[in-house]
Each structure stands twice: as C-alpha cells, then as structure tokens.
Amino acid sequence: MNEPFTAEAYLKAAGITPTLQRTIVMDDLYHNRTHATIEEIYERLSAHYPKVTQRTIYNTLNLFVAKGLVSELTIDEKCARYDFDTSVHTHFQCTDCGTIFDVHSTRMRYRLPRGFTLQTEQHCTYGICAACNRKRMQYKL
Fold first, then answer.
1. Angle at CA 22, nearest 5°, toward 83 and 123?
2. Over the stretch 61-84, which tens digit does the pLDDT of each residue have?
3. How many other CB atoms are there within 10 angstroms of residue 37's CB atom?
C-alpha cells in the first residue's frame, strides 16, 4: 500500500534535511503541478508564510534540481519554471492562455552516439489547448 505523500518524508528519503522552507516549497510543487516560476511559488507561499523570501525559494529550488527532485524548465526565455515530474516527457504550451501541460509519450527514443550519456532533455511544443479551442469555437458561432 502506498503511503500518502509528505514533503518531509520525500526530502528525508532524498538525503535532504527537511527545514520548514524546504518542506513548504516541496509541498507546493507536489500539490500545484503548474510548472511554476519562482515568483508564482512566492506569491502562493508568502500569503501563509510571510517570512519566506524569493531568495530562499531560489536556493531551495536549486538544491532540489541538483538532487534530481525537480526539473528546471527553460521553456520561456524570460524565466525558469519548475516541474515536480522528473520523468522523461515533453511539454505543450498553449499560445493563447500560456498554460504548460505535461505530455507523456512512449515514442521518445534516441540513438545517441557511442560513449554519450543522456542526462536530461527538454522539449516543448506549442499550440492551442482544448479549453482555448472551445472558446475559439464559441466565438465562431
């Protein structure tokens, strides 16, 4: 039987001391799978934890990325986004609303040259999500 997710246990299993700041950032990433920026995470957390700073969130995310708990995405050139899902997958960003979706595929296979080791990859495709397509269709009627 699977135990329910707790940020504290997840961090301990990864060999990270679960401070309050680390725990609340990890909990936010787990429960809000929105590919958030540091600013978005800060906005959500600062309402309940006024002493948390953007610098703390930045340092915490860098630790999580270094330990492989979170992926840093460079979909947008302006800012990094963070993804709790570290499995190999691509992303789809809606050009209307900006939402980023995870896209899992079994066809992502590569033939790397001999001696090469794949450590990470980032793919993003762009288009219009289902909700925005529905809105567009309503306006055409």
1. 10
2. 999 999 999 999 887 777 899 999
3. 18
Rounded Cα–Cα distance for residues 75 and 115 (Å): 28
- Is 18 strand, coil or helix? coil
What pTM, to 2 d.p., does this model score?
A: 0.80
Per-residue confidence (pLDDT) for residue 54, from 0 to 100: 97
Q: Looking at the chain, list the stretches that DSSP marks H as alpha helix, in order from N- to C-terminal side.
A: 7-13, 20-31, 38-46, 54-66, 130-140
CA pair distance 59, 22, nearest whole angstrom = 9
Contact 46, 38 (CB under 8 A): no
C-alpha distance from residue 127 to each of 55, 74, 92 (Å): 33, 17, 7
What strands, in cross-sheet order, belong to the sheet with 124-127? 100-103, 90-94, 124-127
Q: Give pLDDT, residue 44.
A: 96
Q: Which residues contact 131 (CB under 8 A, 6 or more apart)?
A: 97
Query: Residues of the chain whose pLDDT is less than 50?
Result: none
Contact (CB, 8 A) for 62 and 80: no
